[in-house]
């Protein structure tokens, strides 16, 4: 656990609370619609597929592949100053949903579309654990 974390932290909302609680337990949870079964991420109150407000949280594999990324060379927040250049990566999970995240052990120039990755969890404060990814074996 880091003693001091200088980067912005996510805001836990009623819709995202289940996601962040799962991360704290080192489980990747994704919202699932109880009516049509569609998975969705980011967390939100209403199913974009059928309009239902009935949700449950399901634990997913944590395995996926790099879908896309963007490299930041000049940061707008002092907390990231030591990280530039860094890649913000969209990972597509095996279950089909995509997350904006970070691949921790791969330099941005080594990323490629389709790179297999798996989730790792970084406890950054007592309340917040961030899901990140590493290159899969
Ligand atoms: Zn639905």
If you had to describe this structure to a student in words, what would you say it looks like?
This protein has 137 residues and is mainly beta. The protein is built from 1 helix and 8 strands, in the order αββββββββ. It has one helix at residues 17-24; strands spanning 29-33, 39-40, 55-59, 63-72, 86-93, 98-101, 116-123, 129-135. It has a 5-stranded antiparallel sheet with strand order 6-5-4-7-8. The chain has a 3-stranded antiparallel sheet with strand order 2-1-3, with helices on one face. 20% of the residues are buried. The mean pLDDT is 95. The structure holds zinc ion (ZN). Zinc ion binds next to loops.
How would you summarize what this structure contains?
The chain is mainly β. 6% of the residues lie in helices and 36% in strands. It binds zinc ion.
Secondary structure layout:
Blueprint: H1 17-24, E1 29-33, E2 39-40, E3 55-59, E4 63-72, E5 86-93, E6 98-101, E7 116-123, E8 129-135
Antiparallel strand pairs: 1-2, 1-3, 4-5, 4-7, 5-6, 7-8
């Amino acid at each position: 656990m880091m003693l001091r974390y200088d980067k912005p932290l996510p805001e836990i909302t009623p819709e995202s609370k289940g996601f962040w609680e799962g991360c704290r337990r080192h489980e990747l949870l994704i919202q699932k619609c109880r009516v049509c079964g569609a998975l969705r991420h980011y967390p939100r109150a209403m199913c974009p597929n059928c309009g239902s407000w009935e949700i449950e949280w399901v634990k997913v594999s944590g395995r996926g592949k790099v879908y896309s990324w963007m490299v930041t060379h000049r940061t707008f927040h002092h907390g990231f100053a030591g990280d530039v250049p860094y890649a913000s990566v969209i990972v597509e999970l095996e279950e089909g949903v995509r997350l904006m995240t970070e691949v921790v052990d791969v330099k941005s120039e080594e990323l490629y579309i389709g790179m297999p990755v798996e989730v790792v969890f970084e406890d950054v404060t007592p309340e917040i654990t961030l899901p990140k990814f590493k290159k899969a074996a």
